[in-house]
Amino acid sequence: MEESTQEARVVLPDKRQRKVQKKKSKRLRRIKENLLFSSYLAPSFLGVMTFFFVPLLIILVHSFQKSSTNSEFVGFSNYDQVLNNVAFQTASKNTLTFSGISVPLAVFIALIFALILNTKLPGRSVFRSILLNPMMVPVASVVLVWQVMFSFNGTLNTYVMALGGPKTDWMKSDWSRFVVMLLFLWKTLGYNIVLFLAALNNVPGELLESATIDGAGSVRKFFSIKLVYLYPTVFFVGIMSLISSFKIFREVYLLTGDYPYDALYMLQHYVNNSFRNLDYQRLTAAAVIMAIAMVAIVGILFVAEFRLGREVEE
Amino acid sequence: MKKKVARVLSMVLVSGMLFSIAACNSEKKSKVVKISEDDPYFTDKTVVLYQPESTSDQVSVTNMIDLGDKFAVMLDIYLSPDDGMMGGAITTYSTDGHVVMESEAILTDNFEEDLESTDMDIDDTDVAANEEGDGDEYIDDESEGELEGELEGELEGELEDEFIDMDEGIYDEGIYDEGYEDEYYDDWSQYQKQILIFFDYDGNKLSEIDMSDKLSDPDAYFMSMTKDGKGNLLLCFQKDEYTEFSYKSSILLKTIDTEGQSVGQDIAIELGEYESAYSVDTDGEGHLIVQKWGERGGMLGIYDESGKLLFDIKPEGEYADFGGIYPINGELYVLLYQSDSMGVYKVDFEAKKLGAEIDASNLIISTPIITDDGVFLNKASGIYTYDLDTGKEEQVMSWNDTDINVAEAVHSSVLPISKDKILISQSYYYGTMSYYGYGAVDTEEEIEPLTLTVLDRAAKNPHAGKTIMTLGGLDIGYDSALTEQILKFNKSDKEFRIEIADYVDRLDASLLMNDIEDSYEKALIDLNQKLYLDIANGDGPDLLYTPYNPANMDRYIAKGLLVDFYELAKDDDSFAKENFLPNILTAFEVDGKLYEMPISFVLSGWSGPERLIGSRTGWTFDEFNQFVDGLPSDTIVFANRTQKTMLSELLSASLGKFLDYEKSQATFSSEDFYSILELAKTLGSPISENEMYDEGNYVDEWELMSKGKLAMSSAYVYSPAAIVDQNSMFAEPVTFVGYPSESKQGLLCSSNGHFSIISTSSNQDGAWRFIKSMIDEDFQNSLAKQGYGIPVRASSFEKHIEEAVKQYEQMYSMYGDMGGYGMGNYELTDEDIELYREIVSNATVREQTDAQIMAIINEEAPAFFTGQKTAQDVAAIIDNRVKTILSERS
Question: Rounded to an integer, what is the distance from CA B490 to the centroid of its chain?
Fold first, then answer.
């Protein structure tokens, strides 16, 4: 290059150099952007790692070890023990039965109530408030009321005996699962109804009007129009209810303790008792099995929802 | 396709990583920790406080009072008369043989002659249970102070000149007239003195002053000592005046300086009628705080410096009482015990009452030490500072950093001078007493002096290089024999040093704040859970010591956390199973392995008159039912037992019969269990344990026994003397029988303390060495003398019988016919000793309980006891719930 004269001269790079410089600056910009995005994501990422992935890894590791003081690898022996354990089998059966009955009921009854409340019913806002109230009541209060009502010397037995019926220990007999289902429905319906009401409001009014003009009745309109638009909400409510059905352990534990009548013995009882007995291996194996089952069920529901949802779009 | 392959590959890699992480470790062993030179350590210097001259002397030592550059203690000494007992019991009988009154007396040399000179011969009052009385009625509690005319006359005049009696009950009965009091004082002063001693902080005695002469009022007795906040000591005396129907007490406060000279006028505080005081404190704000007891329970009197009453605090609730006075930072806090709770309250001087309760549970579960430098806590693990506002504790010193007997230190008076210097003073000397329950003195024992220990922080730890071995458990600090043995081991072993981890320091005080039923058991279960958690996580001790067994040790065994002693000792020639009582070790085995080594044990079961029970040692439920059905109609089977207690006892030997662990099934739905429920309901009382001892509910067992109307009682056998006890209570020969069971076993054995070694410990050799020292002949023979349960070593068991016989004979010759419980005494015969040997050799089953299963049974059974459900319904629910527990465990 010629030495510069008194005047400053700008030397332009050639075409190839310009191309390389352009690539470099693009890469640099991308790196800077990535760093910036990563810094925004870092707190969430760390949180998810710390509270989700790392514990998950630890759980998985523990489930393949012999004991908390002996890390000897035992393969799937812990899983085998858990799956063949009578208590786990009972708990699984009870949990599936409970969820299998109460979740469809929670969806169906909530839908019925939502349809009723979506009409021009006088005082429907009052009914709406009444149905939503259970969501606001603390669990301990709910349990107390249920105990007063359903205990052996409780209110229900007082009425039953007054009518000449036998005195029943509702919480320590096969009736107990129905008592708990009632509790679950009472708590869950309000929220489900709100979701269905919102979904019903989104059904296009002109379609319903057209159907009315074409002579379709209420039942036909419901099944052919409303229900089709409600599919996504039905699945969402179903999944939320399924998750809530697993949380019923909280109320059952407060009502009946560590070892309830066997009809109420849920998977969470098994896990909770394993934790109290510091049987980490069984605890982690059971937790992994439950997680796999949940993923499978929710996966099936999502696939079904996806297929049916496509229909709606079409 | 490529994407799918990539996904599968990544799943395989993740799984491989997981398995390799899971597989890379092996069994964890605990870390080996060695002591370094820089680790804290306190040297100890021991100074004699007082040397008792006789094993019958009794000495109480006040807390050390810090005077800024020195401290003071007052020794309150009761001397024993020459060749005579210091204290004894006078038992007065009505003519039908029932105990009317028991009182304490200081006895002179002429006691036995004096007794013989009376017309009342105690032996004649012994009556067999089925003999008729002479027509005099049983005297109930209310009229206990009244004697029948004939008896009263006999005591008056005969005993008046010879006995000095401390019990006000005697005065109430009008036996002694006014003129007797001078004689009482003259005799009394010979046997009591108070010595005030001043020390510097290094334990050097500065002066010793005999305060006995300075007591002007002969009727006043020393109560406590405190400081007046002006550098002087405040000595507190109480004087009681009795009238025919009541008594009145007053407090005399004497201020003395550090030379022992009186300062100013004595302060007199008059108490109300039926009030008596038991301590006086000052709060540093010019107030005198007097803990009193009145007709309705405890009270707190707040007085000014001149002794004028400012106000009384009477807590609500019957029989509430104050447990501690804490003047802290210019405020006054008190510990209040009520019938169903306890708590710490601040005194509101303006409102003249107790203020709000504060959260200071640490003051309740530890021993607080209030000093001018703040509050300290004397805990099982050491000395801590305590901040009342924040609740924070900070350790100043650990007992493990000393070479003193921890059990003695924890129960002594402690004065922290600074973080580098701590003083410990023994609090009492009550003579070398046997533990056989009769107060016999062991005159062969050397008389140990009362001591003061000065702990100073050392620059270097002299035990550097030794490996630390941790002994964990509950209430280790209460077992003086154990802590003494630990001390010996630490001094002699070159390789290991034992440090104590007493989990009682981790007690959740909130579980004890409310006196609900089973609150103490729940607190113990919580502590056991913490211990188990540490062990399961590999952070636990090397050795585990269990003085009792409220929680199930099975889970330790099931998890492989305990070492099998037979396996550990198989190459150790110094350990041979034949040297021990074979049936006892076998009772502690689990599937032929020994995980818990008992050091000593006791036996439990039932006892009752032989004429009713026969000579059996065990029975089935059917046989027990037949026995109950065959009793006379006026005979009660048991007294003062709740239905819950009965159920626990009836199940303690036969619970396993209803549990099928292999099939995870429970079989409570059976006739046998229905019978047990029925028996518990019939034989037990429906009221709760707390209500059992309330007036109106409690049944006088002794009265029933004396009249032969009680068929059974609990029996705890720990010595041949227990045989005599039972014979004496029933006033006839008794039979010892086990709880009903299919196998008809005898009494159940339970340990008085047992050791286990944790399998993850790296110090198993050292642990075994220490445990061997607890089961060797020397230590086991020392147990034989102390009466801490029955030694497990066979040769020591024989020694234990010899010692028991010797001490019983000594006691019998000293007390003659005055001791014992109900009807009189029985001699310890050769037949009794043989029976004792037989009972011990018949004990083949260890007392076991399953807390989880019993909790379910105790939860369901009340519905049957109250008649709400049938036995079949209750049993079905128990089966259903217990099945789940068994399934989980399989």
Answer: 27
